[in-house]
Amino acid sequence: MSIAVRGITKRFGGFTALESVDLDIPRGKLVALLGPSGSGKTTLLRIVAGLEIPDAGKVQFDGEDVGSRSVRERRVGFVFQHYALFRHMTVFENVAFGLRVRPRKLRPSAARIRERVGELLDLIQLQTQAERYPSQLSGGQRQRVALARALAVEPSVLLLDEPFGALDAKVRVELRRWLRQLHDEVGVTSVFVTHDQDEALEVADQVAVMNRGRIEQVGTPDEVYHRPATSFVYNFLGNVNLFHGRIDDGTTRIHEEETGHLVFVRPHALEIGRQPTGANHFRATIKHINAAGPFVKVETVTEWGATVHVEMAQERFRAMALRKGEQIFVTPRDVAVFSDERRSVSA
Amino acid sequence: MVSAMPAMAAPAVSESRGVRGLLIGISVAFLSVFILAPLALIFATAFGHGILPYLRSFANPDTLSAIRLTLLAAAIAVPANLVFGVAAAWAIGKFEFVGKTLLISLIDLPFSVSPVVAGLTYVLIFGAQGLLGPWLSAHGVQIIFAIPGIVLVTIFVTVPFIARELLPLIAVQGNEEEEAALTLGANGWQTFLKVTLPNVKWALLYGVILCNARAMGEFGAVSVVSGHIRGLTDTMPLQIEVLYNDYQFVPAFALASLLALLALATLVVKSLVEWRAGNLQGENA
Q: Are the beta carbons of B182 and A133 separated by less than 8 Å?
């Protein structure tokens, strides 16, 4: 099922959580709502589910307005950030809940419910834990039970609120790959909320980047990462160095003073050299070197006192034998320029 | 790990053996004198002349009537407060509304008002010279010096028990499980029965027990509205007083032993509930 969000506005007291938001979620896609906390992403998800009523605007499922439909009539599967498993029920009972509460006419037989729950427990690889209580499971297991419980009712859409937010780094990565696989198998239209750009970029077909109750950009992970529409998106997706700049004859020059244009450069798009190269170099001093990890992270300070982060390959770092306190030249290879923080002038 | 410095090995909050012994001694002595001794005395006096006089005390028709009336008052007051307590705790725990603080204070009011004053208020409202008295007597309804009055004041004094037990729990648990139930297609009633109620059942049970103990044991408020008509409007506590004032010590203490047993049973169930709740907590940790 496809979802269309049209002009949704939501206020909590004096705080505007969402300001006239439009968003299209195509059928069968896995879409990430990405943004910092307080950007309105969870509120938007809850409005789509019917858990929150918008002040203005409408939500359409397959072109049909669902504003008058209650949560239960919308048939959404919702996975809560803290799982919200029924603590007094076993894993089996949790997954079976959605089938058991159906009106008698639509309720599957006990045998059919057992069968269906069994299938889902197979899917989440927790067959052996069926008789356990949520408190006896690990975080990752609870999350999978929450997913199975939501899938049991064969929802038309799956909505996940920070699905991996409460898990350790390693489990997170495993589980998000598993979610991607699961989505490819089940194929249900899914939306998940996250503040972790890696998670969004790795898992989603489409990413909607949100900021202060608005959507800044919607696109594939590739698009939002390599062609960010706004300075916010550029800033939010990955580390970035911020400069002032001026555009002369189509080339961007980095400037010390404020110019009205903001220049963004990713740490890996900066080159360190002992000699000045190109027209756009600047002088800097190495403050700190962190050689742990796939790249060497070099922290430098420019002559005008700004801190600039540079990432370079291990081989090059070793070949150059850079030292702390050394004076070097930094040359940007790839820059993005934004005027007034919103529109991209050149990429 | 054994610390090299003995001074560091001792827990920060620790008293010397003497202080500990003194504190425990004071607590035990206090409880023995003020609680255990009277309790023992009740049973000692009740069985003072053997088991037969004890049993014979319950053959008195007035005593039997008092037991029946007490059971009746509790049987009405406890379910009434069960419904009210759950509704109030639910409303306060889950919603924001104007007058919430006032509602919480009102629930606590019976705790802070003297039961005698509560009884007198009911006399002023429903009594013959009271606010609604003339209208009620014109329609042939008697509340004060009759069973309805006793039931009403019993409800009044037991209002806080169930709501107070549930409130903190419901507030802590939040709405997430209920929301999950709704997204899974449950209706409001199913959500309440299958999700909310099981989550608070131990607190609810404890609240009911406390409420029942108080409903059966209430003296002051009931005394004011009862009118002390023997065999008609005397509850167990009132009948105990009547018997005692008649110098019928064995029957008085025999009846008192029933209330004391109720208190002991309450303690046992309370411990069971707390033990059970503690176990669940342990599992959740």
A: no
Chain A residues close to B177, C-beta within 8 Å: 84-87
Whole-number pLDDT of residue B284: 45
Secondary structure letter of residue A128 according to DSSP? G
pLDDT at res. A193: 95
- Angle of CA points A142, A143, A146, to nearest 5°: 85
The model's pTM is 0.77
B176 closest CB neighbour out of A84, A102, A150 = A84
Average pLDDT, integer, range A209-231: 92
DSSP, res A147: H
Is residue B10 a part of any domain in this protein? no
How is residue A185 written in tokens? 């198998």
pLDDT of res. B279:
67
Instruction: Report CA torsion sign: A276, A277, A282, A288.
Output: negative
**What is the number of domains present in chain B?**
2
Question: Is B84 found in the same domain as B38?
Answer: no
- Interchain CB distance below 8 Å, A97 and B183: no
- What residues make up the domain containing B276? 51-284
Interface mutation target, options A66, A69, A101, A137, chain B, most CBs of B under 10 Å = A101
Same domain, B67 and B140: yes
CATH code for the domain of B229: 1.10.3720.10
Q: Does B277 touch chain A (CB under 8 A)?
A: no
Residue A161: predicted pLDDT: 94
Q: Strands A206-211 and A189-194: what pairing?
A: unpaired
Of the partner residues B176, B185, B194, the one whose CB lies closest to the CB of residue A102: B185
Task: Let me know whether B33 and B116 are in one domain.
Answer: no
- Rounded to 5 degrees, φ, ψ at B138 are -65, -30
Say which of A75, A78, A102 has its CB closest to residue B180: A78
Question: In this structure, is residue B198 part of a structural domain?
Answer: yes
State which residues of chain B have pLDDT below 70: 1-14, 277-285
B8: in domain: no
